[in-house]
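Researcher: Here's my situation. A collaborator sent me these components and asked whether they could plausibly form a single complex. I don't have experimental data yet, so a predicted model of the whole assembly would be a useful starting point for our discussion.
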Amino acid sequence: MTNQTIVNVDQQDLVISRLVRAPRATLWKAWTDPKLLKEWWCPKPWTTEVRAFDLRPGGAFYTFMRGPDGGTSDNPGCFLEVIPQARIVFTSLLTEGWRPATPWLAFTAVISMADEGVGTRYVATVMHPDKATRDRHEELGFFQGWNTCIDQLEAFAQQSH
Amino acid sequence: MTNQTIVNVDQQDLVISRLVRAPRATLWKAWTDPKLLKEWWCPKPWTTEVRAFDLRPGGAFYTFMRGPDGGTSDNPGCFLEVIPQARIVFTSLLTEGWRPATPWLAFTAVISMADEGVGTRYVATVMHPDKATRDRHEELGFFQGWNTCIDQLEAFAQQSH
């Protein structure tokens, strides 16, 4: 039974779909081991500190980034859904144990991985509460930032493969 | 691994713990069948329309209430966690498919049910993003409202038992 308020999904989402030249199992490992995640998670020369990584629904996912100029980015959140080797969903609107947050940027990200040829189809779908937040995220450099991270993930996976 | 920001949980939560004189299985059924839920979900003479009820993590949970004076209360949301016969977690911060929302009142509610004597220990823990939202929820009549609904649930379960 569903009769939810209709939202214009296209206007609230940012989507990146990439064919990554690395095996899905390697990408999954690079994503789900925080020691590996920190190597590619944010565009270099920024660095990532993984403050919490509890890969299960309701488990904490908290990264803290530092830039060479002293800038920082504080990103608490939690995982919502985990399907091994295939799908990770996380959000900034809730933290550990489903506790509501007040994020500086409200979003839910769905990461999916599927075999495609010799590589992996890697899709990031980022949902926002409204078009204004989506547009702000884009203006903050979403496409450049997330694509750079996927480049870094691909290079890291190819090295460690 | 967890090193989440510390929050003062006591100051952000509202909790009701009640011994309900009805079997847990009956309460579970009254909660999880939308045709039954609508009978006790909001304080009478207000009425509940269940617009979506998809009892699984990420599934829509959307109620719309109407009062005798023409007032309405629009409450889209989604389920976060479902443990049959024992625990339901839902939130107003996300809707169907984990999509971020802009709720008029931001909260996550954890409902737990456990056998106790001849009845059921029914605990509602409602978490908010900050103390101001918690206090506003209390001022809106949280304790009276939710306790009235639990009275209605108890009476309904005893009738249908």
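Model: Some features of this prediction you could bring to your collaborator: Residues 65 and 71 of chain B are 8 Å apart (CA to CA). Residues 142-160 of chain B form the longest helix (19 residues).
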